[in-house]
Amino acid sequence: MNFDVRHDFTVELVQHAGDDEMICRAARVSTLGAASIDSEESAGLIRFLMKNRHGSPFEHGFMTFRIQAPIFVWREYMRHRIGFSYNEESGRYKELEGVVYIPPRRRNLIQTGKPGAYEFVPGSDIQYDYMLASQLDVHRVAWQSYRNQLDAGIAKEVARMILPVSTYSTAYVSLNPRSMMNFLSLRVQSDKSLFPSKPMFEINEVANLMEATFKELFKITAAAFEDANRVAP
Amino acid sequence: MNFDVRHDFTVELVQHAGDDEMICRAARVSTLGAASIDSEESAGLIRFLMKNRHGSPFEHGFMTFRIQAPIFVWREYMRHRIGFSYNEESGRYKELEGVVYIPPRRRNLIQTGKPGAYEFVPGSDIQYDYMLASQLDVHRVAWQSYRNQLDAGIAKEVARMILPVSTYSTAYVSLNPRSMMNFLSLRVQSDKSLFPSKPMFEINEVANLMEATFKELFKITAAAFEDANRVAP
Amino acid sequence: MNFDVRHDFTVELVQHAGDDEMICRAARVSTLGAASIDSEESAGLIRFLMKNRHGSPFEHGFMTFRIQAPIFVWREYMRHRIGFSYNEESGRYKELEGVVYIPPRRRNLIQTGKPGAYEFVPGSDIQYDYMLASQLDVHRVAWQSYRNQLDAGIAKEVARMILPVSTYSTAYVSLNPRSMMNFLSLRVQSDKSLFPSKPMFEINEVANLMEATFKELFKITAAAFEDANRVAP
Amino acid sequence: MNFDVRHDFTVELVQHAGDDEMICRAARVSTLGAASIDSEESAGLIRFLMKNRHGSPFEHGFMTFRIQAPIFVWREYMRHRIGFSYNEESGRYKELEGVVYIPPRRRNLIQTGKPGAYEFVPGSDIQYDYMLASQLDVHRVAWQSYRNQLDAGIAKEVARMILPVSTYSTAYVSLNPRSMMNFLSLRVQSDKSLFPSKPMFEINEVANLMEATFKELFKITAAAFEDANRVAP
Predict the structure, then answer these.
(1) Which parts of chain B have pLDDT scores under 50?
(2) Which residues of B touch A130 (CB under 8 A)?
(3) Distance of alpha carbon D209 from its chain centroid, rounded?
(4) D233 within domain boundaries
(5) Which residue, of B145, B194, C216, D39, is most buried by count of CB atoms within 10 Å of its CB?
(6) Is D147 helix (H, G, I), strand (E, B) or coil?
(7) Residue A233 lies in a domain
C-alpha cells in the first residue's frame, strides 16, 4: 500500500514544571525558602482546594506533550481553548507522510439508541472487515491522488484537500494541571464521574495516555481529582 | 455524482450588538443617559484608541455568524481562541450531506519560492483540470464508501473518518470587534498591512466576507483599523 | 463630610443580544430561516445541554452591564477572565469623585470558625457603630489628603495611592450566558448549589443584581441552571 | 510607625520550563530525539517567527514568579488575562502585615500635557516631602483603624476595606514567553518600541525585573523581541 496504517496514538511528555508541593505553595502564596510542607498536610490542602473548587492554584504547573493523532481527533481536541497551547505541523508547507488511522478491532463500531442517549456496541467481524476494506480502499485512491497532484506541480495546500480526516497529524500541546483536569473530566469515560461524559473512543484513548503521565507528575492532585468524582476545580 | 461541489463560502450575520458609539461609551465608562457624542468626536476617540492600542473598549460589541466552509478552513479558523465562540455541526450524530469544496479556477495553484518566503501563482488550465479530475475521483470513492459503511450499520463517527478535509461543515461563530480585527490582521492579505500576512486563499475569502459585514456594523472602527495599517489594537 | 457614603451597588444593563431560542439555534447549527422551534422543545434541549455540560451553545449570547462597586469587589470580580470583557474608569487620568462604601447594618460583621470553614454572623449594634465611625474617620483623612495632594500639584495617579479599597469605581462588563453562569455558581450563595460557595457579601449582592437581569433575558436557561443545581455547563 | 514603608518591588523566579531551543522544536514539531539544532539556525528561526508574528511556538515555555507589589499595581497587572495565571494572598482570611508603598524620590510626581498626551516630570523637593507626609499620615490612621476594628471583633474582610490601594500584596504569577512579551510591550517604556507605551512608573519597574529574568531564560527570544521593535508576536 502507498500509506501506513496505525490503530493507536502517541503521547510523549516533552517537558514539565511544578508538582503537588508547588500547587500548595501557590495556594499559600508562600516564600521560596519556606519550610517544606509535610506530605500529609499537602494532601489535605489539595483535597480542600479540589472539593471547594478553588481552581487557580492548579494553574501553577506545566506539561508539554508531543502527540500523534488523526485529524478528526485534533478537531475535537482543539476545542479546548482555555489553558491550552498548540503547535501542529502544517500540510501547507510540508509533504504529508501518509500515515492513516483505522479503528482497531476492539473499538465499538455500532451506534444504538436515540439522539442524546447513544450507546456504542461491538460490531460483527464481518462489519469490521467491511469497514476496514472500504476505508483502505479510499485511502489508496486518496494518497495516490495526493502524490499525483504534487507530481503535476499542484501546491501542497491544494493537493492535501483530498486527504481523509483519519490522516495522522502531530502537535505540541502545553497545558496546566487545571486545564488537564477539565480535559479529563470531558474526554475520559469513567464510572467514578459525577458528570458522566461519553467521549469518542479515539480521544478517550489519547486522554488515558495523558492521564497516566499526569498521575506520575502530580500524584496527590490526580488522586484528589478522582476522589472528587472527577469534577474539575 | 454522489455529492455536491462548491467553490465558495457562506457567511451570514445572525445577530449583533453594539456599534461605534458603544465602543466610545465603554472607553469613557459613560452613563446610559449621557448626551450622545457627536460623530466627529467619536471618530477622534476611536482613532486614538486604535493608534495607542487601547484594545479593551473594542470588546464591548458582538457579532454572531453562521458560516459554511470546508473542514481544512475550520482547522485554521479554530486556532483563534481569544474572544471567539464556536458551535459546529457534528459528524458523530448526523449523516453528513456530501458537499465538497473544489478550488475555483481563479485560485492560485502553484507554490514557488523557499520555505518562509513562499508565493502562490496561477497554474495552467491543464493543471487545474488535472487537479479537478483527481479530486472529484477521490470524492466519488470516499462518499460511496461513507454511505456503504452506513448501510452496513457502521456508526457515523467511524464511517466519516474516510471523508476528505475539503468536506463542508457549518458552524456558529461569535466574536467581538477586537477579536475580529485580530482575525482580519492575520487572515486578510492587504497592501495596507504594516505586518503583511500570507493567509491561505480559502480563509482569506471567508475573512473578506466577515470584513464586509464588520464595516457595515462598525464603520468608524473598521476605517480606523485600516488607517492604522491593519494593526489590531 | 468631604465624600459620599453608599451601602449598595449599581448594575445597569446597557445592551444585549441573543435569547434562549438563539442558544437552541446554535446548538442545532440551524439556518436563519429555520422554522421557529416551539418553546417546549427549546426547554427540553436547553435542559439536556445543561445537564450534559455541553457549554458552548451558551456562549452565543451577550450582555453588557455598567456596574458601580468598591475597588475590593472589582479585585475579586476581575479574577473572572474567560468570556469577560472589562473597561474600568481610571484614577490616573480623572479626579475621583469621592464615593465610598460602608457595609450596611444588615451585613454580617463577625467571622467565626476555622480556616477553610469560616462562617459569618451578625455583630452587635455597638460593633457596627464602631466600625462605621472608624471607617468614616479614615475616609475623612484620606480624601482630605487626596485633594490636598492634587492642590499641591501632585499627579492624580500618585495622590490616589492613598485611597481606601472601599472607594467606588465604575466599569463596563460584557459577558455571555456561559460566563455568567460560571460567575453565578461561584459568587452567589444558594441552598440549591451542588457545590456550595461562600462568596463575600458584597460580590454576592452584585451577582444577585446580575442574575435578576439574566433571568429576564434568558428565562429558560436561567431556570435550567437552577434545576441543574447551579452547576455551570 | 505602625506599618513598614517600601519604595521598591520584589520579583522572584520560582520555577520555569523551556528555553529557546524548545520554542524551535515546537515550531518544527520535531521529535524529542531530534538532533540538536545549532544555535545560529535557532536564532534565525526565532527571528523569522517573531517578524512574521507566528506567536504560538512562544507559548511552549513557562515561568512562575512570586511578586510583591502594591494593590494599585495588581489592579493593572491582572487586566492581563491571556496566558496568565494568578494566586494572590487574601485579606479575607489573613491579617495583613502593614507594608505600604510610597513613591521613591526619583519617581516623576507631576503630570503635564493634555488628555491622551500626558507627560510626567519631576516635582520639587517640597512637593515630594508634602506627598510623603500626607500619605504617611493617612496610612497611620488607616492601619490604626484596621487593627482597632480587628480588636473589636470585626471580620478581617470588613476591617480591610479601609486600607489604601498602596498596601502591598503578594501573588504567584505564571505565564509563557508569548504572554510575557505582550506584557512587556505594554508595560515597559522603551525608545525601541514601534508602538510606544506610557505605562505607570510602578508597573514599569515590576516589568523591568521580569524582563531581566526573561532575558536570562530565553536569551535569543528576548533579543529577537527587541530587534522586532518590541512588537509581541
Answers:
(1) none
(2) 148-149, 152, 154
(3) 8
(4) no
(5) B145
(6) helix
(7) no
Q: What is the pLDDT along chain C (233 residues), one digit of tens a residue?
A: 799 999 999 999 999 999 999 999 999 998 766 666 677 888 999 999 999 999 999 999 999 999 999 999 999 999 999 999 999 999 998 999 999 999 999 999 999 988 778 889 999 999 999 999 999 999 999 999 999 999 999 999 999 999 999 999 999 999 999 999 999 999 999 999 999 999 999 999 999 999 999 999 999 999 999 999 999 99
Mean pLDDT, rounded, for D108-129: 92
SS3 C18: coil
% of chain D exceeding 90 in pLDDT: 90
User: Nearest CA to CA, how far is C186 from chain A (Å)?
Assistant: 9
Sheet strands (E) in chain B: 4-6, 10-17, 62-70, 84-88, 99-101, 110-112, 119-121, 168-175
Of these residues, D25, D160, D178, D187, which one is catalytic? D187
Strand blocks (E) in C140-214: 168-175
Contacts of D74 in chain C (CB under 8 A): 75
DSSP state of C98: -
How far does Cα D126 stand from its chain's mean position?
30
**CA-based R_g, chain C, Å:** 21
Interface of C with B (CB under 8 A): 12, 14-18, 22, 25-27, 29, 31-32, 56-57, 59-60, 62, 64, 66, 83, 85-89, 170-172, 174, 176
* Burial (CB count within 10 angstroms: exposed 0-12, middle 13-18, buried 19+), residue A32: exposed
- All partners of chain B with 3 or more CB pairs under 8 angstroms: A, C, D
CATH number for the domain spanning D63: value is: 3.30.1360.170
The verdict on whether A53 is a catalytic residue reads no
**How many Cα atoms sit within 13 Å of B31 on the Cβ side?**
4
| Residues in chain A, pLDDT under 50 | none
Q: Which residue segment(s) compose the domain that B175 sits in?
A: 4-227
**Domain contains D232:** no
* pLDDT per position as a tens digit, A10-67: 999 999 999 999 999 999 998 766 666 677 888 999 999 999 999 999 999 999 999 9
What are the pLDDT digits (tens) for B29-56?
987 666 666 778 889 999 999 999 999 9
Helix (H) / strand (E) element for C189: namely: none
Cut 0.90: pTM above it: yes
Residues of chain B in contact with residue C83, where contact means CB-CB under 8 angstroms, are 85
Residue C138 backbone phi and psi in degrees, to 5: -65, -45
Q: How many Å apart are CA D70 and CA D72, to the nearest integer? A: 5
pLDDT of residue C216: 98
Nearest residue in A to B133, CA atom: A145
CB atoms within 10 A of CB C87: 24
Q: List all chains that touch chain A, counting a touch as 3 or more CB pairs closer than 8 Å.
A: B, C, D
Please list the active-site residues of C: 187
> What residues of D are in contact with residue C118 (Cβ under 8 Å)?
93
ipTM comes to: 0.95
D66 min Cα distance to partner chain B (Å): 26
Residue A118 lies in a domain: yes
- List the beta bridge partners of residue B100: B5, B167
Partner-chain residue, chosen from A79, A82, A186, that has the shortest CB–CB distance to C82: A82
Beta bridge partners of C10: C68
Q: Give the count of domains, chain B.
A: 1
Nearest to A113 by CA among B93, B157, C49: B93
